[in-house]
Known about the structure:
Elements: H1 3-26, H2 31-41, E1 50-55, E2 62-66, H3 77-87, E3 96-97, H4 107-114, E4 121-129, E5 132-141, H5 149-166, H6 180-196, E6 198-211, E7 215-218, E8 223-228, E9 235-236, E10 241-245, H7 248-275, H8 282-307, E11 310-312, E12 317-320, E13 331-332, E14 337-342, E15 347-354, E16 367-371, E17 374-386, E18 391-392, E19 398-406, E20 418-429, H9 430-446
Antiparallel strand pairs: 1-2, 1-5, 3-4, 4-5, 6-15, 6-20, 7-14, 8-10, 8-13, 9-12, 10-11, 12-14, 15-19, 16-17, 16-20, 17-19, 18-19
Amino acid sequence: MTQEGQEATSAVEVLALLHQLSLTACRSRTRQSLIFQILNDSVQLAGYDRATLWSLKNGKPKLLGISGQAEANQGTGIAETWNSLVNDMKAPDTPQTVTKDSFATKEKLWLEFQASPASPNVHWFPIFSNKELVLGFWLERWGGVAWQDEEINILNFLMQAYGVAWEKFMPKYTWKSFGQKQALLIAAACFAALFLVHIPLRIVAPCEIVPKDPLMISAPLDGIVEEMLVKPGQYVKKDELLFSYDKRVPTQELKVAQKQVQIIQSELNRAVTLAFKDNRPLSEVATLRIKLQKEEIRLELAEFQVSRLEAKAPLEGIVMLDNPEAWRGRPVRIGERVMVLSDPNKSKVRIWIPESDNVVINREKPLKIFLNVSPEFSYQAELSYIADYSTVSDAGIPSFVSEAEWLDGENQVKMGLKGTVILYGQEVTLFYWIVRRPWAAVRSLFGF
């Protein structure tokens, strides 16, 4: 084969290798795999002893990798030397064989680096993507081996392919991609939207599921609770025992009343018998009859009290009660609230609207309720009542108590569950929606 034929064959091989490296780079699936290929596969096209790859984003060089190493250790002495040199380059956007004239202030550091035993001969290749300088490729040949123009030209073509491959790992849109006019138009559109776009006020308030039309069970007598026979959340039927009183005092009072009636009755019978023989006991008979009536009334009261020593459920429902153990041995007054019976199929939502959020509510728009036990589900309800005055909630926040009825019939939601409710107010501008709370906080702080 002639010399011309050999040169042609060599050129074809170089082009084929250049094409293969370019195609492999463009097929890289991850940013890290592309960095590895740039550092370790480029040597097939032009030999070198060591290579480093630098990110030049925003003009701040950052070491991405070193050939032959899995990770780039930024803390080594050689890495710090590289970093100082690359940061000090006058024209990092220009391909160049690196000399002391390539640096602004680090000529001495470069001469020390070049005087090392490896005697590196360095060439710098910038890599552009979409006309933006994104990477820098630092190639070293040791032992004073020079770079040939043919090798540099071939590597420059390969750098273009690397720039195209790097493009898919760059952000699609940046602020720099917008011109000044486009940015001004976007800013003007956003400013106009603040006053032209109207959205409903959204208020988030705590809520609790409470019984609808509950029946309050109060103490039927003055006395001491002996035992609570039901537990919170228990379902009871009509006439089922709820709690009982201490029976010792009432039963003793009943026995005393019965004995007193017997005594008065005996005295009355004796006086009536004597009245047939003597007229003087007639006045005593009238007095004893009055005393008997009085003691009989006391007896009826004692019997009534004994009959009420066991409280029964007037209807079926769910027991809502505080700690049952706390009621044992507790004195109660007649009419004092003991527990509540509620129909499990009838409930409503009690809401505490913070005083600072008591805006005009749009009653036509349904409320959305999210319970803490299942925040992924929402329920709809309709506002039915808002108090005219505020009270302090359990959380210590001045709030307006309000209530809502279920929209989709009686929901099978467990009593006592808590969550949050979203209420909707009137439509306001986006600007007012954003500044309402900060504005109120500033006015409250400075008093104007």
